Amino acid sequence: MNISKALNVDTKVVISRMDDPIGLTVGNSIEVAEAIDCLRGGGPHDTVELVQTLGSVILLAKGKIPLLFCCLIKQKFSQLMKLLL
After folding, report:
1. Maximum distance among all Cα pairs of the chain, rounded to whole angstroms
2. CB count, 10 Å around CB of 54?
3. Model-level pTM?
4. Where does the pLDDT of residue 54 fall: very low under 50, low under 70, confident under 90, or very high at 90 and above?
C-alpha cells in the first residue's frame, strides 16, 4: 500500500486466509481455469467465495456498483458473469 500511495495509484486490498489451500487444483494455468469455472457458476465453494469477493471489489473500485450493492452483487455474481462471458 505504501508503494501505491507513493506512486499515486489507487489500490484495494483483500486479505484472505492462506493457511489452507482453496479449490481443487494446483498450478497457475489450471487455477485460472478453475477461477473461470467459478465465474461461470461452477467450481468449489471456497474458490467461488474468493472469486466473488474479488470480483465485487473490482466492480466497486471501478465505480460500476455502489458500496451498498456489494453484497447483492456478490450473491448474484455468477448470474452476472454468465451474461458477461
Report:
1. 39
2. 15
3. 0.69
4. confident
